[in-house]
């Protein structure tokens, strides 16, 4: 997707998540092919009962991202 490389690069060291209906190996391969650094959190079809556009995957990703924040 146009601008994805620049967007992820602009995040610097901030963690980011990918929510996808792809498997982990396929998602990782596509990220690499697109020149994107690996997602800090990846939620795939295997992680949720209902796929997109159901919010479960996004909520799980948000929860996992919250746990990556450093404690003060």
Low-confidence parts: none
Helix/strand order, N-terminal first: HEHEH
Distance between the termini: 35 Å
- Structure annotation, total helices: 3
Beta-strand share of residues: 5-15%
How much is the average pLDDT?
91
Shape: globular
- Give the helix proportion (percent range): 25-40%
> Main sheet: which strands, in order across?
1-2
In this structure, how is the largest beta sheet organized? 2 strands, parallel
Spatial extent as radius of gyration: 13 Å
Secondary-structure blueprint:
Elements: H1 4-10, E1 17-19, H2 24-33, E2 41-43, H3 56-66
Parallel strand pairs: 1-2
Could you please describe the fold and organization of this structure?
- This protein has 72 residues and is mostly helical.
- 39% of the residues lie in helices and 8% in strands.
- The chain is built from three helices and two strands; from the N terminus they run H-E-H-E-H.
- It has helices spanning 4-10, 24-33, 56-66, and strands spanning 17-19, 41-43.
- The protein has a two-stranded parallel sheet.
- Helix 2 links the parallel strand 1 and strand 2.
- The chain is globular and about 30 Å long.
- It starts with a helix and ends in a 6-residue tail after the last helix.
- 10% of the residues are buried.
């Amino acid at each position: 997707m146009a601008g994805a490389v620049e967007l992820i690069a602009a995040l610097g060291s901030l963690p980011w998540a990918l929510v996808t209906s792809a498997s982990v190996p396929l998602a990782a391969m596509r990220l690499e092919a697109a020149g994107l650094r690996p997602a800090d959190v990846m939620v795939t079809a295997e992680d949720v009962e209902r796929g997109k556009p159901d919010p479960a995957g996004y909520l799980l990703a948000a929860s996992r991202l919250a746990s990556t924040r450093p404690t003060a």
